[in-house]
Amino acid sequence: MRIIETILASFIIVAALSFVGIFAVSPTSPSYEMTDLEKMGYSALHDLDQQGLLAPLVYDQRLSDLRTILRITMPTKCISI
After folding, report:
1. What is the pLDDT of residue 14?
2. Are the beta carbons of 44 and 73 closer than 8 angstroms?
3. Averaged pLDDT of the chain
4. Alpha-carbon distance 2 to 15, whole Å?
5. What is the sign, positive or negative, of the torsion defined by CA atoms of 49, 52, 58, 59?
6. Is 13:29 a contact under the CB 8 Å cutoff?
């Protein structure tokens, strides 16, 4: 009788795990990969930081000047700030 209970319990566990596995959503890899536009944006911000321009623009809240610099740096089709 205990053997039958053990087999029945193992079937229930396997069925529950397979049922959960069907509804589990795994993230797709493209959401973790950087696009070329993201790389270009990070590169532009890094260049501004290396030149010492980014920190004063951010801390002094001169966002219009930052937008202007990014419009000059980035391609025109990419900017929607």
Report:
1. 93
2. yes
3. 82
4. 20
5. positive
6. no
- The C-alpha atoms of residue 47 and residue 72 are separated, in whole angstroms, by 13
Q: Within a 10 A sphere around the Cβ of 66, how many other Cβ atoms?
A: 19
Whether 20 shows a pLDDT value over 80: the answer reads: yes
Q: Is the four-CA dihedral 60, 65, 67, 69 of positive or negative sign?
A: negative
What is the value of pTM for the model shown? Answer: 0.50
Smallest CA-to-CA distance from 43 within 5, 78, 3 is with 78
SS3 sequence, 24-65? CCCCCHHHCCCCHHHHHHHHHHHHHHHCCCHHHHHHCCCHHH
